[in-house]
Amino acid sequence: MTAARLTVLAGPSAVGKGTVVSVLRRRHPEVVVSVSATTRDPRPGEIPGTTYFYVSEGRFDELVREGRMLEWNRYGDHRYGTPREPVEEALAQGRPVVLEIDVNGARQVRDAIPDALLVFLVPPSWEELRRRLAGRGTETDEEREERLRIAREEMGARAEFDRIVTNSDVEEAATELARCMGLE
């Protein structure tokens, strides 16, 4: 059995964090994937309580004020964060946990849980990241340009992470993430 450890997977928008985590979870069902809370509305195909916990701005404020968020950030017009309790419960049960969050959230987790493993997922190239973001079709041109601006900043933070994994191929990236976590 693997050791219960918190792993943070961060990287720029559209790098494929969710897809890599899905493959990891399929191969290693013992891994708990933290469900984040957000103030944005669900996108088509997203399932409340599974994809995200969708909460009001007021409820999000309460969670932050009560110290019930492990980390949180504003991204565009919305806030995202990791509820603390489910992460702590899974770790106490001896289960490895993965958080799929942004660089600022990873920094907050590093401060809160110094022995967390921070893994940064990078695209094979900047042009591929741009193509993936455009291919999602979930943002306006203005939102996409803002995400690319943020992505440039995030790519500069790679040195703050314990491991770097390149997502040229989802299956290979998931294998490398599992190795980082001591699962393979």
Automatic annotation (TrEMBL):
Alphabetic keyword roster: ATP-binding, Cytoplasm, Kinase, Nucleotide-binding, Transferase
Q: What is its EC number?
A: 2.7.4.8
Main location class: cytoplasm
Residue ranges constituting the Guanylate kinase-like domain according to the UniProt record: 4-182
Localization, per the record, is: Cytoplasm
List ligand-binding residues for ATP: 11-18
Give the reactions, separated by semicolons, that this protein catalyses: GMP + ATP = GDP + ADP
Q: Which InterPro entries match?
A: GK/Ca_channel_bsu, Guanylate_kin-like_dom, Guanylate_kinase, Guanylate_kinase_CS, P-loop_NTPase
Identify a single GO molecular function assigned to this protein.
GMP kinase activity
Show the coiled coil region(s).
none
Assigned protein family: Belongs to the guanylate kinase family.
Task: State the function annotated in the UniProt record.
Answer: Essential for recycling GMP and indirectly, cGMP.
Q: Which NCBIfam families match?
A: guanyl_kin
Q: What is this protein called?
A: Guanylate kinase
| Organism phylogeny | Bacteria, Bacillati, Actinomycetota, Actinomycetes, Actinomycetales
